[in-house]
Amino acid sequence: MKDYSRVNSVFIANTFKPGSKKSGKLIEDLKDIIDLDFSDLKIHSQLSVELKEKFSLTAYQSAIDTVDYCISSGYGILSFADEDYPTALKSIENPPAVLYYRGKFPDFNNYPSVTIAGPRRPTELGQELSYRLSSRFSLRGITVVSGGGTGCEFEALKGATDSRKTVIILPCGIDCDVLKYNPGITRDILENACVISEFAPKTPQLKYNYILRNRILAAISDITVLIEAAEGSGALITAEKSLEFGKTVYAVPGNLLQNEYKGSNKLFLKGAKPFVDDKSVFNDFETLYPGKIGAENEITEVKGNKVTSKFEKNNIKSQETLSKEAKMLYNHLDRQIFSVEDFSSLELTANEILSALTELELEQFISALPGGKYKIL
Fold it and tell me: Which positions ≥6 away from 1 have C-beta within 8 Å?
């Protein structure tokens, strides 16, 4: 049986194009009849004169083809009229009429999310902070949203997928070659990500699409963190849009004479909060989602040109049954996410390190993550 609610939603989205102020409201107004087929919907009294004039069989068949293509390709379609549609997007003046997606669509309405914004060519500090913050957010149950591009967005993507799932908002059709869009993205990363787009399949990457995409990045999450941004940059525009939408925005302060921070620093005059450490961000999330934020065990701080961590192990299990090598590894750890390379300074052989890691994993002191990394439990 044909899913006419999807077909009609796609038809309306195609008719008014992405960024339209009319399409979302129209779908909402027609939600009681959105599942009617072409012949019944076309003559219905609730249908506007404007839409009736645009109601051609060719355009409607195109919407049917799009829905069939998505079904056969394993893509989902979320309509403005669906209960799971993000409430945060409904509040902007030009919400997407439909969202195409692949992967598991997050529950934005009941669980926390954060957008990470930053340039394609960040400083070393920006790269490190993007990765570390995203990992921290993700480990504590916060969905990390980014554009999936290069630079800060890619580091955010890696940091989140090394821990849990993340979201990529595309400036092109849901079926565009993401691996070509950003060569650094691997298939393993894509398997752990939900990819979302408001653009119909086969839509190419166009310059204007980035502007439309950025409003979704700005609106869909509870909080936006701006890593660094020059004046007039896309990352700065996203953060400014977040402020316009009434979101909490954190920006990393930087050298007043350094171009990479001129946009970020000016954002404080518009209401952004200075990011000094992530404790304040987590406190904001705890206020929004009481009891849904994981326990804190590390604070990421920015001091000068360095990212530092204060780490405390919450695990109070007895180490009495552990081998000498396992105790040595565990007590050496000073961060939650780590890899074998972190033990290079210890006087242990590679086999002893791997054996000790296996022991710690079996005893549930640590757990393995994708990409050869581990985390303390």
Answer: none
Dihedral, 57, 62, 68, 74 alpha carbons, nearest 10: -160
Angle ∠(15,16,20) on CA atoms, nearest 5: 165
Mean confidence (pLDDT) of the chain: 84
Which pLDDT tens digit goes with each residue over 203-244?
998 889 999 999 999 999 999 999 999 888 889 999 999 999
Q: What is the dihedral of CA 237, 180, 69, 50, to 10 degrees?
A: 30
What percent of the chain has pLDDT above 90? 33
CATH T-level assignment (fold) for domain 324-376? Arc Repressor Mutant, subunit A (1.10.10)
Q: Which CATH class is domain 113-308?
A: alpha beta
Query: Comparing C-alpha atoms, which of 316, 311, 359, 363 is closest to residue 337?
Result: 311
Highest mean pLDDT among 20-34, 176-190, 256-270: 256-270
* Residue-level pLDDT at 23: 84
Say if 113-308 and 324-376 have the same CATH topology: no
CA dist list (Å): 13 to 24, 316, 333: 8, 54, 52
DSSP 177-241: -HHHHSTT--HHHHHTEEEEESSPTT----HHHHHHHHHHHHHHSSEEEE----TT-HHHHHHHH
Question: Which of helix, strand or coil describes residue 103?
Answer: coil
The residue with tokens 């072409």 is 38
Contact status, residue 224 vs residue 239, Cβ threshold 8 Å: yes
